[in-house]
Design brief:
InterPro entries: 2Fe-2S-bd, 2Fe-2S-bd_dom_sf, 2Fe-2S_ferredoxin-like_sf, 2Fe-2S_ferredoxin-type, 2Fe2S_fd_BS, Aldehyde_Oxdr_Iron-Sulfur, Beta-grasp_dom_sf. It comes from Nonomuraea salmonea. This protein has 5 helices and 5 strands, in the order ββαβββαααα. By secondary structure, it is an alpha+beta fold. It folds into 2 domains: 75 residues, Beta-grasp domain (Ubiquitin-like (UB roll), Roll), CATH 3.10.20; 77 residues, [2Fe-2S]-binding domain (DNA polymerase, domain 1), CATH 1.10.150. The radius of gyration is 16 Å and the shape is globular. The mean pLDDT is 94.
């Protein structure tokens, strides 16, 4: 079947098998290899992209289910040659080692910046907790890093939010 979606601001019409995942569409059909296939079960976050500005595991989303929606991958975060503030902060804080999880970490962090409200670690549910290091760690907990660069990832995100 044919589907149309916006990928990084560009309208794309693609003929897909209804069983094709969004991740496979992005990587294999559109050549956007930033989102990585880690576990292929929605457990590691390496494939995180933004669907209409919200974080999602592309390995769990069917391509046909995102028809007509805006998909943003790590390739679409920058504004031309100008890096997204998170990308610049990740470089500044050395928030990656092998880099495999970095695209998912960046998309997840970008989506997290627009998510209001408390999380599981918020002490006072009546107030906005802000993005403290504890809040950032909790909200980014769906994105795993085998290298253990978490301290620098939190520092990079904290720089952008303060």
């Amino acid at each position: 079947m044919d589907i149309t979606l916006q990928v990084n601001g560009v309208p794309r019409t693609v003929h897909v098998d209804p069983r094709l995942s969004l991740l496979d569409l992005l990587r294999e059909r559109l050549g956007l290899i930033g989102a990585k296939k880690g576990c292929d079960h929605g457990q590691c976050g390496a494939c995180t992209v933004l669907i209409d500005g919200r974080r999602a595991n592309a390995c769990l989303a069917l391509a046909v289910a995102v028809e007509g929606r805006e998909i943003t991958t790590v390739e679409g975060l920058a504004n031309g040659d100008e890096l997204h503030p998170l990308q610049a902060a990740f470089i500044e804080h050395d928030a990656f080692q092998c880099g495999y999880c970095t695209p998912g970490q960046l998309c997840s962090a970008a989506g997290m910046l627009g998510e209001p409200g408390p999380s599981a670690v918020t002490e006072d549910l009546a107030t906005d907790p802000g993005l403290t290091p504890e809040e950032i760690r909790e909200r980014m907990s769906g994105n795993l890093c085998r290298c253990g660069a978490y301290v620098n990832i939190v520092s990079a995100i904290r720089e952008v939010t303060s």
